[in-house]
Design brief:
Elements (H helix, E strand, L loop, with lengths): L17 E3 L6 H7 L4 H7 L13 E3 H15 L4 H6 L8 H8 L4 H11 L7 E8 L2 E8 L7 H20 L5 E5 L9 H7 L3 E2 L6 E5 L12 H15 L8 H14 L4 H7 L4 H10 L4 H19 L4 H7 L5 H12 L3 H8 L4
Helix pairs in contact: 3-7, 5-6, 5-9, 10-13, 11-12, 14-15
């Protein structure tokens, strides 16, 4: 029996997925400082200006991307997402950030971020991995055609750097920042904020730091508060018994793909199931692990091909293929075009 083929849109659109505005709450102030009518611009994309009055308010993820894209165009700030999120600290990130800040160690806190950020941000998947002496905190937007995705990523990485500085404490520095989008005309604000080398046209969106910080205890962490918050978030995020939400699976697969640990066994383990039970639940939902993995790979491939000039070899490696030929064969099955032709037809202008 052949592998099911995803439709050409990959995963369903995320237009109904939401994100807390806490991370972007400074955006209206930035627009006003540039002489813009922030309320009018927000209304132009179909949002209420009052949505930015409190960090716990939520808006559609796609609308945030649309607003960031329009704001970048109108202000001429190609790094607007970064600038809007430079002031954002832990206090603006809600319950998940309090859990992170009260975890025993930096590594434990980042594991909580990976597990629970989807409760605040449904449009992306964070991940944490270790590569030798380096640790990587990454952020992957799930929708391949999302307008303004690069601005959201710029902001997310700015926040990631702020979060790490807060929980790691004295002596923390980043080693590198990787961004899977083309460089803006002026990248000086990135270098200033991250105080580390910034590499555009990369194969991932991530901040890189010394892995030794993962073992560092977080100053002021409260064990009782951590346990309470973890219990609250587990209850909120619990999957209904007897079923597995397809969108949640795709988010988990995207995280596993980013960390190079993608397999059906690993996916099943993420949901506390064995391989056979996991496959049965997927079958009851009308899908298979292979179909979902193909859809996630297709989405990730289109994001890299559209937004950056990363080589096809690096894309293939990032998606877990043995070589470019295997990747190109799969991509043609999904899209009807080779990766090179698709990039010429759909990629952003260099």
């Amino acid at each position: 029996m052949g592998n099911p083929t995803p439709n050409k849109r990959g995963r369903p659109p995320i237009s109904n997925h939401v994100i807390r505005v806490g991370g972007a709450i400074a955006l209206p102030s930035l627009l006003r400082a540039r002489g813009m009518d922030a309320d009018a611009l927000i209304a132009e994309v179909g949002l209420q200006a009052a949505a930015f009055d409190h960090p716990d308010n939520v808006i559609p993820f796609a609308k945030l991307g649309e607003l960031a894209h329009l704001a970048a165009e109108r202000t001429g700030l190609s790094d607007l997402g970064l600038r809007a999120c430079i002031p954002t600290g832990l206090v603006m990130l809600g319950t998940v950030s309090y859990l992170v800040a009260n975890s025993a160690t930096v590594g434990a806190g980042l594991a909580c971020l990976q597990s629970y950020l989807h409760l605040h941000d449904e449009g992306a998947a964070p991940y944490v991995q270790q590569e030798g002496s380096l640790a990587i905190l990454g952020y992957e937007v799930l929708e391949p055609h999302l307008l303004g995705a690069e601005q959201i990523v710029f902001g997310a990485l700015a926040i990631a750097a702020n979060l790490l500085r807060e929980i790691c404490g004295a002596g923390f520095t980043l080693r590198e920042v990787s961004i899977a989008y083309r460089a803006p005309p002026d990248a000086s604000a990135f270098v200033t904020h991250f105080t580390a080398p910034v590499r555009f046209d990369a194969d991932r969106n991530a901040v890189v730091f010394d892995a030794a910080f993962l073992e560092r205890p977080i100053a002021g962490a409260n064990t009782l508060l951590r346990d309470f918050l973890a219990s609250q978030l587990r209850d909120k995020g619990r999957i209904e018994e007897g079923g597995v939400a397809r969108d949640r699976i795709q988010r988990v697969l995207r995280t596993l793909l980013a960390t190079g640990c993608i397999s059906q066994d690993e996916a099943a383990r993420a949901f506390g199931m064995n391989r056979r039970t996991f496959a049965r639940r997927l079958q009851h939902s009308g899908t298979t692990f292979r179909a979902l993995l193909d859809a996630v790979r297709f989405d990730a491939a289109r994001i890299l091909l559209r937004g950056s000039a990363v080589s096809l070899e690096d894309v293939a490696n990032r998606l877990g293929y043995a070589d470019v030929t295997a990747f190109a064969r799969a991509f043609r099955r999904w899209s009807g075009e080779s990766p090179a032709v698709w990039r010429r037809n759909h990629g952003a202008a260099v």
